[in-house]
Structures are given as structure tokens and as C-alpha cells.
């Protein structure tokens, strides 16, 4: 079963924070480049970057405040999935904004 994984049953939650931090760092590279370039997509990139950092902070708060066990791990997994969704949607919107003049 999909939910019968060690990362959702026995982990301390540290791996979720490590992976999320790496994901955030990799995601921030193009977002910061878009903001630094002064592109019309800069506001969207800035909001997306802010949401990613806020989600990472939320994960750290969940890690230290929720008691160890399945609820903590599920909350961390949910936060990580939310981060991935925010990054994907934000970058797709940025690409659409940048490419809009080329297709019109």
C-alpha cells in the first residue's frame, strides 16, 4: 500500500526537512534569476519564492511542535507536496508570462 512506507511510519521527520530544504534551494535558483532579470514575471516569481520559504518554515514548525508519529509525518508529507505544487504552478505561470509576447 502507498501509505505503508517507512517515511510515513517510522521516520523522525528529519528526512522530510532535508529533502524540502534541497527542493527549496533548487526551486529558488530560477525564481531568483527571474526576479533579478526584472522580467514581467518577477512579481509571480517573488510570491512563489516567498511561499516556498514559508512552507519550509511551516515544516520546521510542524517538526518541532507535533508529537512524533504518523500525524507528524503525514503533515510533513502534505507540506512537501504543497511546496511541489506551489513551485510547479508558480514556474508555469512565470513561463506563460514570459512567453506570452512571443505567441501573440
From TrEMBL:
The chain crosses the membrane at residues 12-36, 42-64, 76-102. Keywords: Membrane, Transmembrane, Transmembrane helix. This is Uncharacterized protein. It comes from Microbacterium hydrocarbonoxydans.
Amino acid at each position: 500500500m502507498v501509505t505503508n512506507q517507512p517515511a510515513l511510519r517510522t521516520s523522525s521527520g528529519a528526512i522530510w526537512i532535508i529533502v524540502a530544504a534541497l527542493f527549496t534551494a533548487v526551486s529558488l535558483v530560477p525564481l531568483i534569476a527571474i526576479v533579478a532579470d526584472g522580467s514581467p514575471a518577477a512579481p509571480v516569481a517573488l510570491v512563489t519564492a516567498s511561499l516556498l520559504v514559508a512552507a519550509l518554515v511551516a515544516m520546521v514548525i510542524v517538526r518541532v511542535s507535533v508529537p512524533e508519529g504518523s500525524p507528524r509525518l503525514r503533515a510533513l508529507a502534505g507540506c512537501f507536496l504543497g511546496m511541489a505544487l506551489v513551485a510547479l504552478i508558480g514556474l508555469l505561470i512565470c513561463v506563460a508570462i514570459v512567453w506570452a509576447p512571443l505567441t501573440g
